[in-house]
Amino acid sequence: MPEIVKVCGITSVADARFSVDQGATALGFIFYSGSPRYVRPQQAALIAACVPPTVLRVGLFVNETPETIRSIAAAVRLNVVQLHGDETPEGCAELQDLRVWKGFRVSETFDAAQLAAYACEAFLLDASQDGSYGGTGRTFPWGKAAEAKQYGRVIVAGGLDGGNVADLIRQVNPWGVDACSKLESQPGVKDPEKVRLYLEASKSVK
User: Which one, of 190, 202, 127, 183, lies nearest residue 158 by Cα?
Assistant: First the structure.
């Protein structure tokens, strides 16, 4: 089982509590207004207050200013900030006082060597789709994630659910896995059975 088993796109206390009860080790809150899973910081703070301290509270940001990121991180009491836009190595370095996961959109032409320029706790690899910063429900070639491991910790996202996450873990052995849109009944609303199956499958790999 990976160290990080994340359920992203949390917008309600009920979804947060259920995910934690089923074994999630991290919850993701999306602070990108262009996402259908956007959650206001005030609401995220209320949800985060219900999350046990053993579970990571991760805030996802897209091309946001360091000042705004720090402000929201403090208000919501985030453990980790996930930079999921076009942030540069210099932009990540500005946030070195925080735990940072840098997201990358992966296609067939993705070159893992670019990761060497970034100083962060982990690299989160997601499927690439024009005009989208994630939540596509698509997978990417998992061999790219295996290549990326030489540059640091890797979290794999993109189209994961109970039907494929165990295969991904066996093939790549990533530090973490992350699922969002494939666990929903509608954007921003989790389907309890899909969440349960994803977390159960994630924990099934020894």
Answer: 127
User: Are the beta carbons of 177 and 160 closer than 8 angstroms?
Assistant: yes
pLDDT number for residue 129: 64
Residue 200, number of CB atoms within 10 A of its CB: 14
Neighbours of 99 (CB within 10 A): 17
pLDDT at 142 over 70: yes
pLDDT tier, 138 (very low <50, low <70, confident <90, very high otherwise):
confident
- Please count the structural domains in the chain: 1
Find all residues with CB under 8 Å of 17, minimum gap 6, and list them. Answer: 50
CA separation for the pair 118, 112 (Å, rounded): 11
Residues 44 and 41: their CA atoms lie apart, in Å, by: 5
From 15, 92, 120, 126, active-site residue: 126
Please state the pTM of the whole predicted model.
0.94
Q: Is 8 a catalytic residue?
A: yes
**Domain that includes residue 22, residue range:** 4-204
- CATH no. for residue 73? 3.20.20.70
